[in-house]
Specification:
The complex is a heterodimer of chains A (about 120) and B (about 120).
Chain A (H helix, E strand, L loop, with lengths): L2 E3 L4 E5 L4 E3 L2 E3 L5 E8 L6 E7 L6 E3 L2 E6 L4 E6 L8 E9 L8 E3 L3 E6 L1
Chain B lengths: L3 E3 L3 E4 L5 E7 L5 E8 L3 E10 L2 E4 L6 E7 L2 E6 L8 E8 L11 E2 L3 E5 L1
Parallel strand pairs in B: 2-11
Antiparallel strand pairs in B: 1-3, 3-8, 4-5, 4-9, 5-6, 7-8, 9-10, 9-11
The chains are: A mainly beta (about 120), B mainly beta (about 120).
Chain lengths: ~120, ~120
């Protein structure tokens, strides 16, 4: 069965600090997809990134970067120079992609990030 | 942009009532999902559907049923609402297969259901 663990329940930082959100996953599939979503106080889930299991290249998008390591089953998310607007709950999620009806998305419990001015 | 629309943002129902939560997507997606979100528990899958009239149980299906009569609409039904079903309910859809062009799952804005 697939599982996602976000060990950090809450993180609080001061603006301009860098912060890393951890995500560890478990799956038996060789083909799978990893996601990060942001949920601001408004409640809507905002897609941030999707990574395929066969592509371990790390990615940077502005102040956001993601480190995918299959050897440790981790997909960590770093925000550089955090801002107050980054305050939200962040979810890591896993989808097994072996076909059929196996595309359900399993979420971690989320990390509440608070960025203080 | 793909849109997933949930019919109500807030809903208050009485214990024992039959409750329908509606979800509509406008991009011909095969897969649709219902999740509930509770503090400290993240999002948990209730049911999903990969085609019209097809459904599969998720991780917490007890007390719920679903209906998918048309491809664009996926309804979550609480046959007899109870207070422990007070929660935020999120609907999602996705196109198969996941490709470079199709990044993944689109979520609705959620329905906050309170059962009193």
């Amino acid at each position: 069965a697939q599982k996602v663990t976000q060990a950090q329940t809450e993180i609080s930082v001061v603006e301009k600090e860098d912060v890393t959100l951890d995500c560890v996953y478990e799956t038996r599939d060789t083909t799978y997809y990893l996601f990060w979503y942001k949920q601001p106080p408004s409640g809507e889930l905002v897609f941030l990134i999707r990574r395929n299991s066969f592509d371990e290249q790390n990615e940077i998008s502005g102040r956001y970067s993601w480190n995918f390591q299959k050897s440790t089953s981790s997909f960590n998310f770093t925000i550089t120079a955090s801002q107050v607007v980054d305050s939200a709950v962040y979810f890591c999620a896993l989808s097994e992609g072996s076909g059929g009806s196996n595309y359900k998305l399993t979420f971690g419990k989320g990390t509440l990030l608070t960025v203080n001015p | 942009d793909v849109k997933v629309t949930q019919s109500s943002r807030y809903l208050v129902k009485r214990t024992g009532e039959k409750v329908f939560l509606e979800c509509v997507q406008d991009m011909d997606h095969e897969n649709m999902f219902w999740y509930r979100q509770d503090p400290g528990l993240g999002l948990r899958l209730i049911y999903f559907s990969y085609d019209v009239k097809m459904k599969e149980k998720g991780d917490i299906p007890e007390g719920y049923s679903v209906s998918r009569e048309k491809k664009e609409r996926f309804s979550l039904i609480l046959e007899s609402a109870s207070t422990n079903q007070t929660s935020m309910y999120l609907c999602a859809s996705t196109l198969l297969p996941l490709t470079a062009a199709n990044y993944g799952y689109t979520f609705g804005s959620g329905t906050r259901l309170t059962v009193v």
